[in-house]
Specification:
mainly alpha
Length: 476
């Protein structure tokens, strides 16, 4: 019995992840940080092994899991529950952005505009708010409640992109309002994290929804599977092949348009990032370390050229931190030392020593002076704080397995929960050269823990028989 036509983009997340991780490491090797690594060979070997482990896990998932049937490209209208989740998630974005703007002192549009023009002041002013919060112990209750409902944060962009065509104008306007206020908060504090997350989540969801599905293989067996999948009972295979070809062209065209839009959004983000980073290094007096070449400065201007050099260094300096962490011995931190937000909750509500003190990054800071919370060290030392560096390779293989499984589930069955989790996993993979991003802030941690729990428990509830089924079984 022949299966459905194969998914020609089944390896798209694998290719994108490997290209990103290898690309950032190559930039590290040719940049200013590699000569500072005393164990460059060990660092290179470990980084290569981690990427290989991810690829092995991904390919094993494709090979060992049954190939799921691919659906028709058309996505039906969302259920009332999905619409409610989208509306509530947009409210979460609006509330988090508004409460955070108030907490950090944005009293008018002029304040936001001033911070946009001078992002360094907004970035460094936020640390004054941190110190005030720690000194007074003050808690913003509305913001705290919003953080605790962080599961809503993960749902908005994936579901919006999947069902955009079926959402009415009022719901679309509500979504845009929520996302805009959320983005304005990060603009006000001069921080790129929230804007980058929006870009990553949107790109990941767009890839799931729009990536071409079927293979272009021309052999008769594949064409036969495709005709059966498309419901060909007419005895006119030529007509059905032309229809399939037309659908394929439409899919590729939509994916290409989405790629152009994503590229444009990325370019805008990179330019703002260059402006932002240039202002930061100028504010702290280290701009001379990142001065661009004479040609770049002449073409782009000295400030933008400096900013672009910082942009290149931004996702690569974590590998220097990794090299310093690799030189430290393993010390088990009780299982929480690799998860900053969970460790923070533990200290806040249960007391006792901070598990973070036994993490690789903080122990490396004490041994070498590399600031754990100011500079990056990649995600690997955070994971190694729990499972050791050899154990990280196993974790990366599991992440690869999960990436393939979630990608196929989100595409083949239009599984909304798999789509949301795949987008969160994409954030984790994008920040591999930086830190353990999903467990850096509390609302993202709450979102991941909640949604993973639901995903793992879902098969249990699906197998539970209904009341009628139990009655029939009892009578039998």
């Amino acid at each position: 019995m022949e299966g459905p036509a194969p998914d020609r983009s089944a390896r798209l997340p694998l290719k994108a992840t490997v290209a990103w991780l290898v690309g950032t490491y190559v930039l590290f090797l040719v940049g200013q940080y590699a000569p500072l690594a005393k164990n460059l060979g060990q660092t290179t070997l470990f980084a290569a092994a981690a990427v290989t482990a991810f690829a092995v896990g991904y390919l094993a998932s494709l090979r060992l899991s049954p190939s799921p049937p691919l659906p028709d490209r058309a996505v039906g209208a969302p259920s009332q529950l999905v619409r409610l989740v989208i509306a509530a998630s947009a409210l979460w974005f609006l509330a988090y952005g508004a409460f955070s703007l108030i907490e950090y002192g944005a009293l008018s549009w002029r304040d936001i505009w001033a911070s946009l023009l001078d992002p360094a002041s907004g970035y460094f002013d936020k640390f004054e708010v941190y110190r005030r919060q720690e000194a007074t112990g003050a808690v913003n209750r509305p913001l705290q409640v919003t953080v605790l409902s962080g599961a809503l944060y993960a749902a908005l962009l994936p579901l919006t992109i999947r069902y955009w065509r079926h959402l009415g104008p009022w719901l679309r306007a509500w979504i845009l309002l929520g996302v805009s206020v959320y983005a304005l908060y990060f603009v006000y504090i001069g921080t790129l994290k929230g804007l980058g997350d929006l870009l990553i989540l949107g790109a990941a969801a767009g890839a799931v929804v729009l990536a071409p599905m079927r293979s272009n293989t021309g052999d008769d067996a594949v064409r036969g599977r495709r005709r059966r999948y498309l419901g060909d009972r007419s005895g006119r295979p030529g007509v059905q092949r032309r229809r399939a070809s037309t659908r394929g062209r439409a899919q590729r065209s939509a994916f290409a348009r989405a790629g152009v839009a994503t590229t444009a959004a990325t370019l805008v983000f990179v330019l703002y990032m260059a402006f932002n980073q240039s202002a930061r290094v100028d504010h702290v007096g280290v701009a001379d370390r990142y001065q661009g070449s004479g040609v770049a400065a002449a073409v782009l201007g000295p400030r933008l050229a400096t900013g672009l050099n910082v942009v290149i260094a931004y996702p690569t300096h974590g590998y220097l931190g990794l090299s310093k962490n690799l030189a430290q011995p393993f010390e088990f931190g009780g299982g929480l030392s690799g998860f900053p937000s969970i460790a923070g909750y533990k200290v806040q509500y249960l007391g006792g020593p901070d598990p973070m003190l036994r993490s690789y990054p903080l122990r490396t800071e004490r041994a070498t002076g590399w600031p754990a919370r100011q500079y990056w060290g990649t995600v690997y030392p955070w994971l190694a704080s729990v499972v050791s560096f050899p154990g990280v390779l196993g974790v990366m293989a599991v992440i690869g397995w999960a990436a393939a499984r979630l990608w196929r589930a989100a595409r083949s069955r239009a599984d909304d929960l798999a789509l949301i989790l795949f987008c969160q996993l994409s954030v984790l993979l994008a920040y591999v050269p930086a830190n353990n991003q999903l467990f850096e802030n509390r609302y993202a941690t709450i979102a991941v823990v909640t949604l993973v729990g639901i995903y793992l428990l879902r098969p249990v509830f699906r197998r539970r028989p209904t009341g009628r089924a139990r009655s029939v079984r009892a009578a039998a």
